[in-house]
Write a structure and sequence with these properties.
Elements: H1 9-26, E1 49-55, H2 61-76, E2 82-87, H3 92-100, E3 106-108, H4 111-119, E4 122-128, E5 137-141, E6 156-159, H5 165-177, E7 187-190, H6 194-202, E8 208-211, H7 213-222, H8 224-227, E9 230-235, E10 242-247, H9 252-263, H10 271-277, E11 283-284, H11 292-304
Parallel strand pairs: 1-2, 1-3, 6-7, 6-8
Antiparallel strand pairs: 3-10, 4-10, 4-11, 5-8, 5-9
Helix pairs in contact: 2-10
Length: 312
């Protein structure tokens, strides 16, 4: 067996010095060196939790933002650690798909959509507007020939969507009870938005349009020249107004804070102007049971006229 090579005294001293440096850097017990502490003038601030607030397509996205972004700005200025983001949808079908997918945390749906959202795990926390203001309107030209419902036989009637409760379902039920077979006697055109439905009458593409008071008021405000040639020929009895809903996994404290701020909006600084921009009187207390009358109405409509979700 060969003997290990001898190490000179000078080399041993160099190795010992190197080992001392390593131990000094690592600590006497071999632990890694501590990181240098860093100090901040203020503690780091966590980004607020973002929640989507999806309003059903009352208007095109640009008009929807103009009407509802002031409301979200008001809420965001008073909520702690939470930020609401306004979300528009391309059309009613796209909005209803979001409800089924449980996408947005907060919703402002029409009453029929509220029933669908309830089944998907959302609950009602408020009602947007007075119940008496939720009724269907049928708009015609002032210089047109439509005087009675019978005058619509063979004509086109425009609506935003088959599932627009006040602007389609309620006008169709009105015409049904007036003696028209809405599946055969008239041509139903679903044109995507309230404004488009009314504009179709102005342009002569439809003899009448289904809409509702809030959309008609906004149309008169934003398009006074076109509105001057139109009139509301009939209106339906009222029902419940649009709901404000929250998904069932949103923290109760957040839902309660949003609900409180909505109910207080009419008396808050700047609140009346925000409500006026949405053509909404105020927010009212409501819950899931408040919409039972809508369930009964829909059941009667579907028995007598058509399924809400199926275009006739």
């Amino acid at each position: 067996m060969s003997r290990p090579a001898s190490v000179s005294p000078g080399r041993r001293a160099a190795l010992a010095a190197l080992a001392g440096v390593v131990l000094a850097l690592a600590g006497c017990d071999g632990a890694p060196p501590e990181r240098e502490l860093q100090y901040r003038a203020t503690p780091p601030v966590a980004a607020p939790a973002a929640y989507r607030f999806a309003v059903h397509p009352l208007h095109n996205p640009k008009l929807l933002s103009a009407a509802y972004q002031p409301l979200l700005d008001h809420l965001n200025g008073r909520l702690d650690g939470v930020r609401l983001e306004l979300e528009a949808s391309r059309d009613y079908a796209a909005y209803e798909a979001k409800i089924r997918a449980r996408g947005p945390e907060f919703l402002l749906p029409n009453p029929w959509q509220a029933i669908q959202a309830n089944a998907a795990g959302y609950r009602v926390i408020a009602m947007a507007g007075d119940a008496a203001d939720f009724r269907g309107l049928i708009v015609v030209r002032k210089d047109g020939p439509v005087v009675s419902p019978a005058d619509l036989r063979g004509q086109t009637v425009a609506y935003p969507s088959p599932t627009a409760l006040a602007a389609c379902v309620m006008p169709q039920y009105f015409l049904h009870r007036a003696g028209l077979d809405i599946n055969r006697d008239i041509r139903n055109a679903y044109v995507g938005s309230q404004q488009s439905a009314i504009m179709n009458v102005h342009l002569g593409r439809a003899a009448a349009a289904g809409t509702w008071p809030a959309a008609w008021r906004l149309f008169q405000r934003d398009h006074p020249q076109e509105a001057a040639g139109l009139k509301v020929q009939w209106e339906t009895p009222p029902l419940m107004n649009n709901a404000v809903m929250v998904r069932d996994d949103v923290p109760p404290a957040v839902a309660d804070a949003v609900r409180r701020l909505l109910l207080e909006l009419a008396d808050a600084p700047g609140g009346p102007a925000i409500l006026a921009g949405m053509a909404t009187a105020r927010f009212h207390a409501a819950d899931d049971a408040s919409y039972d009358k809508v369930r009964d109405y829909i059941a009667a409509f579907e028995r007598e006229v058509r399924p809400v979700e199926v275009q006739p």
